[in-house]
């Protein structure tokens, strides 16, 4: 029984990370593209833009990090494996 | 592979187990305190090199706080500056061979985030009084009270998980790569880790600023409103 749960846990962790990475990856791409566009139009605002961009990117990245943490919980602190 | 969620105590002081992140944190604290003491011992109007460097750091932090909170940075400089410099040094402490960053463990991040939560409440109460601070939970109407309460908890939790996840994943990935491919392969990833560490330290400090600014921020509209009242008659 434990073996089955472990196998399922590993598959679940891989699924969580892979699908959890799709959304943030697309979102970060759009955010960086928009920031590049803005910097190209207004190079003098590059400081403020990149500061805001970094904060925003970290916020978006957090979603992927949540998935990673869930995957690690499933792998290392699984409540169903005795 | 060892779990990143489990900590082994190095030694015990009485009933208190002392783990490696605690030791690293103590080392960083001693280092920072000694540096600050040595540099500020002989302050002069004609600054020495060290004093000029420290002044540049402090004024940079001041500028960031003033930009983010739109307020006088003086009351928040000590807290935000310490958080920024400590998290930065903790993230970069993996540069020293054999040392794992304390922020790669959940407990350190939880302590830091709880400090931020406590500071939010303390500054909020100090700025607008207990009643005024509690009233901000009922903004814009009393229906939002449960949501605002939940938000306090979730944003603290996301502060913990963000720092923990970013730093721990860096350490973890380097460990995996090191077990797959030998000596020089992890170096680009370690360079990326330095960038991540710096950005995460900055983010943590900026978010602490934003949270505290939101807690004290309700103080400003009444001041403007009272200014208008003085203007209208």
Automatic annotation (TrEMBL), chain A:
It is a multi-pass membrane protein. The record marks 61 as: Reversibly protonated during proton transport. GO terms for cellular component: plasma membrane; proton-transporting ATP synthase complex; proton-transporting two-sector ATPase complex, proton-transporting domain. InterPro entries: ATP_synth_csu_bac/chlpt (IPR005953), ATP_synth_F0_csu (IPR000454), ATP_synth_F0_csu_DDCD_BS (IPR020537), ATPase_proteolipid_c-like_dom (IPR002379), F/V-ATP_Csub_sf (IPR035921). Residues 11-73 form the V-ATPase proteolipid subunit C-like domain. The chain crosses the membrane at residues 53-77. It comes from the Bacteria. Keywords: ATP synthesis, Cell membrane, CF(0), Hydrogen ion transport, Ion transport, Lipid-binding, Membrane, Transmembrane, Transmembrane helix, Transport. Its main location: membrane. It is found in: Cell membrane; Membrane. It holds the Pfam family ATP-synt_C. One of its GO terms (molecular function) is proton-transporting ATP synthase activity, rotational mechanism. Key component of the F(0) channel; it plays a direct role in translocation across the membrane. A homomeric c-ring of between 10-14 subunits forms the central stalk rotor element with the F(1) delta and epsilon subunits. F(1)F(0) ATP synthase produces ATP from ADP in the presence of a proton or sodium gradient. F-type ATPases consist of two structural domains, F(1) containing the extramembraneous catalytic core and F(0) containing the membrane proton channel, linked together by a central stalk and a peripheral stalk. During catalysis, ATP synthesis in the catalytic domain of F(1) is coupled via a rotary mechanism of the central stalk subunits to proton translocation. Belongs to the ATPase C chain family. This is ATP synthase subunit c. It comes from Chelatococcus asaccharovorans. The gene is atpE.
UniProtKB/TrEMBL annotation, chain B:
InterPro entries: ATP_syn_F0_a_bact/chloroplast (IPR045082), ATP_synth_F0_asu (IPR000568), F0_ATP_A_sf (IPR035908). It is found in: Cell membrane; Membrane. One of its GO terms (molecular function) is proton-transporting ATP synthase activity, rotational mechanism. Keywords: ATP synthesis, Cell membrane, CF(0), Hydrogen ion transport, Ion transport, Membrane, Transmembrane, Transmembrane helix, Transport. It is a multi-pass membrane protein. The chain crosses the membrane at residues 23-40, 78-96, 108-125, 163-187, 199-217. GO terms for biological process: proton motive force-driven plasma membrane ATP synthesis. One of its GO terms (cellular component) is plasma membrane. Its main location: membrane. Key component of the proton channel; it plays a direct role in the translocation of protons across the membrane. Belongs to the ATPase A chain family. This is ATP synthase subunit a. It comes from Chelatococcus asaccharovorans. The lineage of its organism: Bacteria, Pseudomonadati, Pseudomonadota, Alphaproteobacteria, Hyphomicrobiales.
């Amino acid at each position: 029984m434990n073996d089955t749960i472990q196998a399922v846990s590993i598959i679940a962790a891989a699924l969580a990370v892979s699908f959890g990475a799709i959304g943030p990856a697309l979102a970060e791409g759009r955010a960086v593209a928009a920031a590049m566009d803005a910097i190209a139009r207004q190079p003098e605002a590059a400081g403020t833009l990149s500061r805001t961009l970094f904060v925003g990117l970290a916020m978006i990245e957090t979603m992927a990090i949540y998935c990673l943490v869930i995957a690690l919980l499933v792998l290392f602190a699984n409540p169903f494996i005795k | 592979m060892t779990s990143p969620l489990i900590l082994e105590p190095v030694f015990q002081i009485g009933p208190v187990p002392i783990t490696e992140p605690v030791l690293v944190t103590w080392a960083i604290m001693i280092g920072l305190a000694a540096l600050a003491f040595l540099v500020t011992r002989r302050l002069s109007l004609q600054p020495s090199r060290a004093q000029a460097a420290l002044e540049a750091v402090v004024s940079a932090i001041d500028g960031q706080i003033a930009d983010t909170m739109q307020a006088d940075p003086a009351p928040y400089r000590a807290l935000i500056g310490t958080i920024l410099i400590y998290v930065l040094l903790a993230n970069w402490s993996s540069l020293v061979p054999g040392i794992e960053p304390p922020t790669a463990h959940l407990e350190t991040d939880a302590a830091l985030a709880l400090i931020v939560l406590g500071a939010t409440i303390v500054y909020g109460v100090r700025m607008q009084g207990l009643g005024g601070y509690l009233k901000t939970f009922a903004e814009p109407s009393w229906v939002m009270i449960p949501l605002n309460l939940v938000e306090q908890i979730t944003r603290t939790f996301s502060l913990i998980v963000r720092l923990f996840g970013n730093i721990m994943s860096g350490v973890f990935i380097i460990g995996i790569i090191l077990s797959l491919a030998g000596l020089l392969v992890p170096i680009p990833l370690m360079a990326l880790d330095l960038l991540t560490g710096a950005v995460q330290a900055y983010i943590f400090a900026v978010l602490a600023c934003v949270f505290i600014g939101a807690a004290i921020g309700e103080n400003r509209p009444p001041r403007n409103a009272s200014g208008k009242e003085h203007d209208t008659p």
